[in-house]
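Tokens in:
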């Protein structure tokens, strides 16, 4: 019995250094994982905060469009808002809230002339959002991307002014889009370029708007934008059963003012 106890004790004494080393290694590994995760999270927050700081510090107006959609007007007199635009609003609000910023939400037709010259975040393309249409008209000749009408689908396509080509969503036989394009644009507000900033998050369809809003919170995109104050970002997304997937950045261009 004594030999057995001694054998176990000897084994424990011999194994103790290995156990200690393993515990120390596990602790160091845990600290490294925690540190790496924390650093990445803080870098993302720093980049996101830098992007939103100029607007967030002044409580930007988040402007949501409400399209009339012809005959449907009698069922929704205040206008009809697509689910994708609403989801984009939720996404942008969550990004601002996470950074400690507060934005006021308003509908495009309710903006006063004074509010039009303030810091604005515009959600939705020119079909859905009157203010987006107004601001893009003011920026005509300045930006390298624009929206052009697509009469075949009662929607818009993204027009690349530099390349002279249209980038159109793809459709299935029923006419529902299976892909969409979106734009993220940041410029001075053309109605008050010295004092206010403008961010436009818009798609040909609402899927592109939602996808662009989500991409705005992406760490890799924020890293690529860290040295650009004003820019245009073209994104493309796949649409399946009304939901978007696999959003990718097609191109980033610096906007000079």
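Residues out:
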């Amino acid at each position: 019995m004594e030999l057995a106890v001694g054998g176990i004790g000897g084994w424990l004494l011999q194994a103790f250094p290995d156990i200690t080393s393993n515990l120390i290694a596990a602790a160091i590994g845990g600290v490294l994982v925690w540190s790496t995760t924390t650093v990445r999270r803080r870098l993302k927050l720093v980049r996101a905060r830098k992007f939103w700081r100029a607007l967030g510090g002044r409580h930007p107006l988040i402007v949501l469009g409400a399209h009339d959609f012809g005959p449907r007007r009698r069922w929704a007199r205040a206008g009809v808002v697509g689910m994708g635009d609403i989801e984009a609003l939720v996404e942008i609000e969550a990004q601002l809230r996470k950074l400690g910023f507060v934005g006021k939400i308003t509908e495009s037709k309710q903006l006063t002339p004074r509010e039009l010259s303030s810091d604005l975040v515009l959600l939705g393309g020119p079909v859905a959002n009157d203010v987006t249409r107004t601001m893009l008209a003011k920026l005509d000749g300045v930006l390298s991307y624009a929206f052009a009408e697509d009469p075949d689908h009662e929607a818009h396509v993204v027009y690349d002014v530099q390349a002279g080509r249209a980038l159109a969503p793809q459709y299935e036989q029923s006419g529902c889009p299976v892909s969409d394009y979106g734009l993220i644009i940041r410029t001075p507000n053309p109605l008050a370029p010295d004092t206010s900033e403008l961010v436009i998050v818009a798609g040909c369809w609402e899927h592109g708007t939602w996808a662009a809003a989500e991409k705005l919170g992406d760490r890799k995109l924020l890293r690529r934008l860290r040295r650009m104050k004003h820019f245009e970002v073209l994104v493309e997304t796949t649409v399946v059963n009304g939901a978007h997937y696999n959003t990718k950045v097609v191109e980033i261009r610096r906007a000079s003012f």
